[in-house]
Amino acid sequence: MGSTRVFEINPDEIDQKAIDEAAALLLDGELVAFPTETVYGLGGLGLNPASASKIYEAKGRPSDNPLILHIHDFQQIHVLANGVPVEALHAAERFWPGPLTIVLAKKAFVPDATTGGLDTVAIRMPNHPVSLALLEAVGEPLAAPSANLSGKPSPTRAEHVMEDLEGVIAGVIDGGPTVIGVESTVVDFAHGKPIILRKGSISKEALNEVIPGIEDATSNHVHHSPGTRYRHYSPNARITILPADEKETLALLQKEMNAGTRIGWIGPVCPDPDRMTWSFLANDADAYAKEFFSLLREMDRQQVQHIVVEPVDEVGVGAAVMDRMRKAAGI
Predict the structure, then answer these.
(1) Where are the domains of the chain?
(2) What is d(CA 81, CA 140) in angstroms, rounded to the nearest whole number?
(3) What kind of fold does domain 5-224 have according to CATH?
């Protein structure tokens, strides 16, 4: 692979020529990263096994980790899935386009290479003018996991994609920073009672208004979801989530700094800003969701060795933030 081409597209003023050029690369079987409202996705033809294999190879992603098919037309759900339950239709009608992925029984033509060998398919319609324009130009679903090396923090800016995949993929559409910053909520409708497989910005409370009594996944369910089976979101530095016993943690950090360890702090109040690399982050779940992955990457650039993160309340998108935080910390 040669150089990675960057297409700069203003989401408020779509450059159709650039969209068509990026679509042509995808139709030729190449990979192109593009912005969604959640994170940047690594796009490839979702119904082409060779393109799916390229995605796994580029990311270093295990091939049994299913990919999400992105669509631009609501009716495509019936093309890709068998026997769509009425609850799934209600959820899609309420939250699409938007950060909701639904898992359904797949049609036979949907390749196993895309679904990680499962008999289900994960589908969503993104709420971003660039991704919707690209999907329409391609004319078929795109598989698009997060456009990062597997295990690394998800990309919320085009430069994050380039950090991980420059020279590996054919192109990236730079549509500016993403709005939400954490991956979509994933709900399984294929195995009886709807189950939340992955937390996202669409909260359990919001889903419960459409699907009363919806439940969180157990360890028996999560293998049906993209992005839940392997180590995720981790920077090079180790991460500690600030526990309730703050004094003991701060004493240990002082010992580490005295021994020469570079400490990073993410949160609203840093206890030692003169000695720690402090990334201010307001105590607000939406702010955490939008900036957390980006700040992890910034800490890596500053060669921080140990990152301490202040937690947020697990309400609304805060539940998704804490889920990603724990995964990044290896908890």
Answers:
(1) 5-224, 238-328
(2) 14
(3) DHBP synthase (3.90.870)
60-82: buried (b, 16+ CB within 10 Å) or exposed (e) per residue? ebeeebbbbbbbbeeebbeebbe
Strand partners, 308: 240, 265
Q: What is the pLDDT of residue 231?
A: 54
pLDDT of residue 228: 52
Distance CA 199, CA 324 (A): 9
Q: Give the separation between CA 177 and CA 158, rounded to whole angstroms.
A: 8
Sorted by sequence, the CB contacts under 8 Å of residue 209 that are 6+ apart come out as none
* pLDDT tens by residue, 173-213: 999 999 999 999 999 999 889 999 999 999 999 999 999 99
> CA–CA separation, 142 vs 140, rounded Å?
7
| Beta strand residue intervals within 142-210, DSSP E | 142-143, 171-174, 185-188, 195-198
155, 164, 137, 186: which is closest to 35 by C-alpha? Answer: 155
CATH 3.40.50.11030 fits 238-328, yes or no: yes
The dihedral formed by the CA atoms of 309, 313, 319 and 324, expressed in degrees to the nearest 10: 0
